[in-house]
Structure formats: C-alpha cells, structure tokens
Amino acid sequence: xxxxxxxxxxxxxxxxxxxxxxxxxxxxxxxxxxxxxxxxxxxxxxxxxxxxxxxxxxxxxxxxxxxxxxxxxxxxxxxxxxxxxxxxxxxxxxxxxxxxxxxxxxxxxxxxxxxxxxxxxxxxxxxxxxxxxxxxxxxxxxxxxxxxxxxxxxxxxxxxxxxxxxxxxxxxxxxxxxxxxxxxxxxxxxxxxxxxxxxxxxxxxxxxxxxxxxxxxxxxxxxxxxxxxxxxxxxxxxxxxxxxxxxxxxxxxxxxxxxxxxxxxxxxxxxxxxxxxxxxxxxxxxxxxxxxxxxxxxxxxxxxxxxxxxxxxxxxxxxxxxxxxxxxxxxxxxxxxxxxxxxxxxxxxxxxxxxxxxxxxxxxxxxxxxxxxxxxxxxxxxxxxxxxxxxxxxxxxxxxxxxxxxxxxxxxxxxxxxxxxxxxxxxxxxxxxx
Length: 434
Prior knowledge:
Largest sheet: 5 strands, antiparallel
Order of helices and strands: EEEEEHEEEEEHHEHEHEHHHEHHEEHH
Helix content: 25-40%
Strand order of the largest sheet: 3-9-6-7-5
Distance between the termini: 34 Å
Number of strands: 16
Number of helices: 12
Shape: globular
Oligomer: single chain
Radius of gyration: 23 Å
C-alpha cells in the first residue's frame, strides 16, 4: 500500500498499479490488477511543479494548527509534494523531516536545519468566530484546493461568540500579529451570526470593523463571508442570549435592541429566507465600505434549502434600511439537496451552527470565489480541528457516512453556480470557469 511507502505516489515494480479505492490500511492499494479495487487511480491534477525556495537556516516551523507530518525521510521535498496542504518543510541534519501548512519560525538546536517554502501558494487569513472554526472551514478549503491542484496556506484569528470589532488588530493580539508580520492574498471576515441583519448592530459594530480592516489590509483583498439565516429565523427582537462583555464593548443584543423589544416591534428576520436576505443585504453593503468581494455561502445555503423567493413583506421592510437598490439573484433550488443536514442538532432542536457537510459547501463556495473556477472534482469533506456532530460530539476526520458521489457533485455545482449568479460582487472574473 501507498501508506506503507510514506504516501509517495509510486508503486513498487512487483505491484506497479496504484488503485482508485482506499482499501489498504485506509490508503491506496498497489496491485498488478485493480479490477477489485475500483480500477487504476488517475494522476492528480497539478498546477505546480512543487517549486520551493529556502526561507531560513537554523530555525524550525512551529505551526499553530499542528504539524502535518514528521519523521525520518531523506526526500522531504517529495513528501511535501504529496501531502495535501503542505506549504513548508524543515530538514534537519539527522534526516528528520517536518512538514506543515503554516509556519511561525523559532530558533532550532540544529544550526543547519533549513526551512523551505513552496512558491506557488495562495495565503488566506480568516477572522471570525464559530461559523468559521466549527467543522474547520480553513482546513476544508485547504483540502478542497489541494485536491484540485492548488496550495492554500490558511491561518485564523477566531473567538467564539465575538464581534469583528473586538477582533480588530488594535484590540486583539492574535489578529495584530498575523496582519503585521505576514503577507496575505485574502482576508476573510465573518461577523457574529445575527449581528449584520440588524440595523443598530450593523451601524455600531459591523461597518466600523470593516473600515478598520480595510485600512490595514496592505495588498490583501477583503472577502466578506456572507453567512446564513437560522433554521427558523429569529421571530422576536427580545434577546436573552448571554454574551462576552469584552466582545461587545458597546453592549450586547439585549441592551441594543431593548427599546424595540419593549415597543413590541415586529421582527423582519422571522424565517430562514427573510434572515438570509437581511444577511445578504448587509454583507453586500460592506462593499461600500471598502471590502473587495463577497463569498456567498448564505446564498448557497438558500439553494440547498430550497428557497425559491424571499417573502415580499420582509424584503420590503429590510430594503427600507438601505439607500441603494439591491438585486438578489437567487440560484434555482437544488431539490436534490433538500434532505441534507445543514444544521447541527443540539438537545433535540436545530442549532445555528453548521454540520461538516454544510461547512464543506461553504469551502466549495469560497474556493469558487477565490479562484474563479468550479470546484467540481474536489475531494470529499474532511476536518482536523473543532470537528463536531450532533450534540457537540467530537468527530474529527472525514465524515462517517460520506454522501453519495452524486450529492457531492451537486454541492460542487451549486457552489460554482451561486458564485456565477452572484456576479462581479462575488468575484472579479465573475463568469466562473467550468
């Protein structure tokens, strides 16, 4: 099996054919005849020859998210070429090889240790909260991209239940370190779930935060991560959610919406389509404050959930909060996905957080947004950190019951189509290449 040969994609002369199915210790089999192993494996798509440059000497990489692989390997560069997401490899005098997706350099006891970095890499910084880190959007983007022949380095500054305002570089050491000391191609911003849908919190937190990130982005493009509505929307403007005071310095939802609650004002986000529309309007309005593009995950959810139109009454009420016109191009519903579990089930009810397969749809949509091409043919969902199933059970790794190939293909097609429908606001080359 390939696994017993350090994952190097080459079979020995006595069993020269690598087979398609992973039936040998969880890896690809090497056989003379692959008839019973799914047939021969196709060569992976590549856009890079795996070119690297020397980054430093006498140091090693200490990645925040852990090392992808380490051990004795005299062909460390080849190893990096064949491990999805590898960007950096460190070679030690004793033949030890260490590979990682990210790198924070530290002095090594080995004075001749060398860090090498891949040249053709897209670097993405995520700033947000649990809608980003639950079921690991950065890692899912990395693995989707790797399966399609692209290398993504992904880092994150995420705090559960927090606002983007609190995670500006002037308030958050992690964000400051990543923005001051690193160069990024894209900075993906994700706000607290319901916050952009409400005018008062949008004005208090959302727009000031975007303006701040825009002012410090350097050469990066600011990408707004348009999130999704709750399963049943939010029927009331009276909030009883607890919050972290340091994450909400100007008051939480309860305090800011208290006058509307006491006046028994009606909620315009009282259903999934209405809340989804309110979030879409908010995230697209961020373009007026300097954001470069929108990653329309919420629109992909609307297609997957079978939304055909937004109710006219809530649409009109939401539109009144904005001066500029807005045309939302909804993708026709993907009826094949209607039974897909998009929300975690917690305590017998729908939570607002995303399942692993839903985060996979988000990753596919982000891939289409960044690279302006269809993610068709991407690898199945996978997860490394903060991987959860219903009732917050820990479920790292691939899905236990991976959806059929037809469902995965439909998710990939929806991601491509929703970005194409979205137009230039989502991607500069808005006609996504198939």
